[in-house]
């Protein structure tokens, strides 16, 4: 988070508009809903998986998907806000540090409440999974093609 905030000027400004922006925002909405459900059922390991690890993986995928265009400033700040609130029940001291020192928010993260989310778009989630699986398959096929030595045609002896 400190590195991203230090390089804040390199982030793309304006409203989230690209496919990668929409997928990342949808992944945040899914993480919020799944983490809330896990906490309600006292499944703390699942809550940590959804609210931290899966959200980190979504951010990493977003960074790769954005490429040279850069990540959206507003979405990255929303990500930091959401992730801080989601892990607060498990890591309250860390969440308070991030809330006050890095995000420069007033008050306590405990009193900030649960993050709001839009209804997750499961069709977008499925479409992105298909796209990511296709990319992985294409890379494997390309790597296989590049690693196989080419056979030279045999000369016919007369």
From TrEMBL:
Domain Methionyl/Valyl/Leucyl/Isoleucyl-tRNA synthetase anticodon-binding, residue spans: 21-156
A Pfam short name: Anticodon_1
Gene Ontology molecular function terms on file: ATP binding; leucine-tRNA ligase activity
Keywords on record: Aminoacyl-tRNA synthetase, ATP-binding, Ligase, Nucleotide-binding, Protein biosynthesis
InterPro entries according to UniProt: Leu-tRNA-synth_Ia_arc/euk, M/V/L/I-tRNA-synth_anticd-bd, tRNAsynth_Ia_anticodon-bd
Transmembrane segments annotated in the record for this chain: none
Origin superkingdom: Eukaryota
UniProt record, GO biological process: leucyl-tRNA aminoacylation
Protein family membership: Belongs to the class-I aminoacyl-tRNA synthetase family.
PANTHER family: LEUCINE--TRNA LIGASE, CYTOPLASMIC (PTHR45794:SF1), LEUCYL-TRNA SYNTHETASE (PTHR45794)
Protein name, UniProt field: Methionyl/Valyl/Leucyl/Isoleucyl-tRNA synthetase anticodon-binding domain-containing protein
Organism (species): Microthlaspi erraticum
């Amino acid at each position: 988070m400190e590195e991203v905030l230090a390089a804040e000027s390199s982030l793309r400004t304006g409203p989230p508009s690209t496919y990668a922006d929409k997928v990342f925002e949808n992944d945040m909405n899914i993480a919020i809903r799944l983490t809330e459900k896990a906490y309600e059922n006292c499944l703390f390991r699942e809550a940590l998986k959804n609210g931290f690890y899966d959200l980190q993986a979504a951010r990493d995928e977003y960074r790769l998907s954005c490429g040279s265009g850069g990540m959206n400033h507003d979405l990255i700040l929303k990500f930091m806000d959401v992730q801080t609130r989601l892990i607060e029940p498990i890591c309250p001291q860390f969440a308070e540090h991030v809330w006050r020192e890095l995000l420069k928010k007033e008050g306590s993260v405990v009193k900030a409440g649960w993050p709001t989310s839009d209804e997750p778009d499961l069709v977008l989630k499925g479409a992105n999974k298909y796209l990511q699986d296709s990319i992985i398959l294409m890379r494997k096929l390309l790597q296989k093609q590049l690693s196989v030595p080419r056979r030279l045609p045999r000369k016919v002896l007369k």
